[in-house]
Amino acid sequence: MSLHTTRLLSSDFKLLALVSFFALLTFIGCGGGETTGNASTNAASELSGTVSVDGSSTVFPISEAVAEEFRSVAPRVRVPVGASGTGGGFKKFINGETDINDASRPIKASEQDRLAAAGLGFIELPVAFDGISVIVHRENTWVDVLSVEELNAIWKPESTVMRWSQVRASWPNEEIALFGPGPDSGTFDYFTEAINGDGGASRSDYTASEDDNVIVTGVAGDRHGIGYLGYAYYVENKDAIKVVPVDPGSGAVAPSAQSINDGTYAPLARPVFIYVSTQSAARPEVKSFVEYYLDQAPKLVAEVGYVALPAAAYDVAKKRFAQGVTGSVYGGDRAGVAIDELFSQGVN
């Protein structure tokens, strides 16, 4: 069995980068991979209503794929999926506008406080692994690797790097065009934490969007462009853009299903989540959709370019949802805790 470990961010997701991800992978070889089929096809076909999903553009392809498949078993249930960004999605979730929020980072303490003030509960469920991918134009011939220190030099708040030659003297004396997620994005929060040491700390003179397709288009259209986004968007557009291996100090590694899976793509590998409103979970169409989501995730996650969790993690997520276990497992010291252990908190 493969052994991997995880670093978890403390409150407001501090320290969630490398060690959390490794621990999430501890049980990757355990538990088989068969789904339990909790959602009865016959029962689901009789359901109607709407399940509203919004949030992370990174998780969007997974939720959209699940929603499309769910229509085949519950044709009378509408499942619109938006992509307002993790933070933007949580704003809607807190306002009671959505049933499920996609998130590419754990919920913040401030968001939990606002939910509590609104009298709303939530169930936190992990659904996949992702590796934030650094991309450049496909005709960029000079960048073959970037170190964490070089990425920090480019993206830190006080950065004065404007040209490629300022990163390395041998690179072209051409102005860098920067593209990346906006501040409502969980990818923005995670990348800035991992690279700049403080979630949300970033230079602001770049083209920002919560839509990863905008980032792809920007980099693909500028020979001197650079950006970062979720791994699935790189995979979907790899003919138009080039991915850059990242060196954390132990050697350069490119994002791939294997490097994300085995924990070697550091420090930009991470888990992603869905958050389900406890009030919404009481509705049969929402309950059926979430059960179907967790059943189908191992297959659909891989199909859209992400990395599936260990089977044991999906099993405990199903129990967590079935038992209505609320609250977040993040915050405080969780280093070295495997994902199934982590999400077993409060589960009988």
Summarize the SSE layout with pairings.
Elements: H1 18-24, H2 41-45, E1 49-50, E2 53-55, H3 60-70, E3 77-78, H4 86-94, E4 100-103, H5 109-117, E5 122-131, E6 133-137, E7 146-147, H6 148-155, E8 177-180, H7 186-196, E9 207-208, H8 212-220, E10 225-229, H9 231-236, E11 241-243, E12 246-247, H10 257-261, E13 269-277, H11 278-281, H12 284-303, H13 311-322, H14 339-342
Describe the structure concisely for a colleague.
34% of the residues lie in helices and 15% in strands. The protein is built from 14 helices and 13 strands.
Detailed description of the structure:
This protein has 348 residues and is α/β, with parallel strands linked by helices. It folds into two domains: 11-130 and 269-342, D-Maltodextrin-Binding Protein, domain 2 (3-Layer(aba) Sandwich), CATH 3.40.190.10; 133-254, 3-Layer(aba) Sandwich (D-Maltodextrin-Binding Protein, domain 2), CATH 3.40.190. The chain is built from 14 helices and 13 strands. The chain has helices at residues 18-24, 41-45, 60-70, 86-94, 109-117, 148-155, 186-196, 212-220, 231-236, 257-261, 278-281, 284-303, 311-322, 339-342, and strands at 49-50, 53-55, 77-78, 100-103, 122-131, 133-137, 146-147, 177-180, 207-208, 225-229, 241-243, 246-247, 269-277. The strands form four sheets. The protein has a five-stranded mixed beta sheet, with helices on both faces. A four-stranded mixed beta sheet has the order 2-4-13-5, with helices on both faces. Strands 1-3 form a two-stranded parallel ribbon. Strand 8, helix 7 and strand 9 form a beta-alpha-beta unit. Helix 3 (60-70) packs across helix 12 and helix 12 packs antiparallel against helix 13 (311-322). The radius of gyration is 20 Å and the shape is elongated. The two termini are 26 Å apart. Residues 1-39 have low confidence and may be disordered.
